Give the backbone structure.
Amino acid sequence: MALPDAVALVDLALKATSAYGRPDLGRRLQATRGRLSDPNVRVLIVGEFKQGKSQLVNALVNAPVCPVDDDIATAVPTVVRYAETASVTLVKESESDSGEPLPAQRSEVPIDQLAQYVSEAGNPGNRRQLSYAEVGLPRRLLEGGLVLVDTPGVGGLGSSHGAATMGALPRADAVLLVSDAAQEYTAPELEFLAAARQLCPNVACVITKTDLYPHWRKIVDLDQGHLRAVGDSPRMFPVSSTLRLHALRTEDTSLMDESGYVELIHYLQRDVLGHADDLDRRSVSQDILAVSEQLAASMQSELIAQEDPEKATALIEQLKVAKQKADDLRQRSARWQQTLSDGVQDLTSDIEYDLRDRLRTVSREAEHVIDQSDPKDTWDQFVSWFEGQISQSVSQNFVWAIQRAQYLAGQVAEHFSENGAALLPELNYGQKDFQSGDLRHMEKPELETVGIGSKLFTGVRGGYSGFVMGGMAMGLAGVSMLNPLSAGAGLLFGGKTLHDELKRNKQRRQADAKQAMRRHIDDTTFQVGKDIRDMLRTLQRTLRDHFSGVAEEMSTSLADAVMSAQKAVQTVEGGRATRIKDLRAELDRIENMAQRARALDGAGSQAAFSSGAAALGAGR
Amino acid sequence: MTSMTGGHAVSGATLGAAVRNLLSRAIETYSDSPQAAGWLRMHLTRFDEPLRVAIAGKVKAGKSTLLNALVGEEIAPTDAGECTRVVTWYQDAPSPKVLMYSKGGGAPRQLSIHRNDGALAFDLGGTPTERVDRLVVDWPSQSLRGTTLIDTPGIDSLSTDVSARSHQFLAPEDEPTAADAVVYLMRHLHSGDVRFLESFHDQGVARATAVNTIAVLSRADEIGVGRLDALMSAKRIASRYRSDDKLRDLCQTVVAVAGLLAQTGRTLRQAEFAALTELSTLPRDDMDALLLSADRFVKSETTANLSTEARGSLLERFGLFGVRLGVTMIRQGMADPTKLSTELVRRSGLDDLREVLNIQFTERRDLLKARSALLALDLVLRREPKPASQPLAIELERIMSGAHEFAELRLLTALRSGAVKVPEDARVEAERLLGGDGGATPARLGLDPMADPREARAAAMDALGRWRRRAENPLSSRALADAARVVMRSCEGILAALPR
């Protein structure tokens, strides 16, 4: 359980909300509590084929979890997280015919059989259609909520694996780009890195197999040079998984230092996990401050009325106006609502247009390619080129869509807080702008359920929904309308008549090929378009419900405040003094809670961090 | 005992003569068009030159190292970062010379030759690499006598200009490539490799003739991350690739080679042997600790009498795997440097590669040359058609469809790609009879090279009968019947060449 201090504070706040009769605020805190109990800091391990990703994961957790072999390739993502006892579960997610997500099918398998399910050899092309494999291990490294995800090798953006991995990026907390020390970065790697940065800013680079290559330092220099040339300087970690595993076996600390894993683990624990923890603490802090503010509202206004009855009337008027504003916020005519609904509408049509545009370009190019050759000779090559083009187009469209959606969410939040900021004026309480806080941060947990990288592994298998990039593109390979060519003499420069006959057939073949190709583009456009609309609809619903909820809470608080101020005016003279004393006491208690919340936010940067020796310990 | 290696040499010569004849006639016909005539004359000359084998692959696939291994000398420069940036030809000649050809034609410029720690250093004298079309290195070497090797820049260089040079050389848009055959290096099968192999698979006119490409699984020791059994593992992977559907269509076979080990094995120095021997005297545990990583090998304190520098050089030359293997072999009793050299080269897979090159390229030299020449002529006929060229076109067609060697190659391609469907065991036999495993008679019949001619005759008659039955069987598909007839013709050729 991560962040016990935060959890304790949330529990305290929950008690307060029930004591003060605010179940609505209690519900929000329950959600916060839920997030804390399953922190899930996702680190995506990506890179090209055979660069040492799986071995990296194995070395980090000191267990032969991900299958590694000279000839083996990972076909299915593997998620490694903390568990009391070691276990392996295969997960298959699916949708019903109407597109509703069905509960995932989970089946446990013995650890030594994992290779059969996740490698290309045992499960070629993932024909078993697994969404991912989940491995639970009792490891200190994972205890804080770190989740390592081993992904299939990316063959550049134009591969189906590449597209699928892109889909997982928006919800990754960090990405490790893995490349071995045999040679400097290639163009496909740099291209992938550039795209990945746009979806997940937290990218670090790992250079593997330093034990094998005497020139690894030069490669690291060259790599850093390539990155600087495009204005990038992410952290870079040269490592050797072989040395690390050896060091763990022989408990050799100097070898452990040479393996480079100390710095990498330090980064994962402090920069990645620590940063995520900081964000969580801040989120909790803000939630609790918001709750405190609202809880205090009615008591504070009563206190003012009690202490200074003349001010009471003016105060009540102010509060009524504020409540009206809060109610206005819940109206569809509120600015943020307009921004949201117009924004989603615009976004939907923009994204769909962008997709259609890209696919139209692909279609035109494909027609041109078909015209240049005879499909019977080139069909396989054509299909793999075509699939690659589609994957790339959908990937690029996806990246752009995510960025626009995130921007829209930010705009909506801004417009909401512009109108909602000054709602509780006289109630001088710490964080006034609780709504606007760290927008980018607040968004993230809320949008967990939205398609902006909706459920992670639906994301991993495909950008918008699980079935687009992985499944669809394969469909074309099944189209076989080619007549096998009869071999024999005259193949090359046959007699005139044979040549003519071949030509006639070829034209027909080309026409058929174009038709199949266009059909596939239509299907893809349709499917992806539907997924875009679904994602944006969910986005709209989530944002609307969230901000409406906030407005409603504020309205309730203000209504309570009005009522208690009114009651105060009617209090009998004698009771005032006691009442004031009680109120101050309650308010002190709430202020206490708020203080703790503020302290929680600051606590992150002072979090103690483990030393290098613990890197050894993290292996246990 | 007369040899049976005659095989198709007779018809090979006939083919060569026919092609030379045709080219000469064409030069006469196009004497009024200087560009066409010049082009044809160049190809006629080229016909008699050594076979041109291009070495292609991605950046750092090990092309220059492999070239050095094949030549047996460290001449092509290599480096940790990207190195070869210009197409460089290495051809046999009486004395060493380097000529630089610029883009846009003009006379070549002679460059001075320096040797930089073994490898040649090319000083372009201020000319930027973008302006260089190619370098041609004359180098006296037995290994280059029958084959000119062409080193190319990585096809996926970060500098698109550099990779464009390779593309332009290997798969030019509208003309046949200047190479007769290609050795394609890849460290493991990647979609980029398949795409590239497809791009210089025959295009247009010569689509139906065989692809003259061999794939090499390079840096094979690294596939097994430097383990002692790395090469066995690599061989298994190469074997798997050989039967991969995608690759079968694009290359004739796949061979695993550890280029660095091959290069160093062939150029092993006495001092290096002494150094390895010195290391082998270390106690087992010290040895293992030293060989744990490249850094440790070079920097650790050790009782072995070998300086840090010397160890560094050893690692440069052998790679970690090479050092591990060399030391192990000496420990196991290898005391002779020549024997060590031979064994390292054998283990590296270079011998296998040379055998494959021999069968697939050298033995087919005339055929590959003829094909290149005919493609060149075809280009002229298409670009500058005229009434007088009509008989040339007919003759071209006659040679292409009539020459049995071409028919064999076409059928081999069709069988490998699955365009012609034949039962599996029949396919294996057909490929063998057509010369897929070697053009010499014993290879075609699957017999021992020293086998009795009588045995060969019996086997050939047997095969002929079998395939005649297939050709005449009414239930055979048209494709199978046509294929059977080609195989029959090959058997008849074998019989004709056997001594009576």
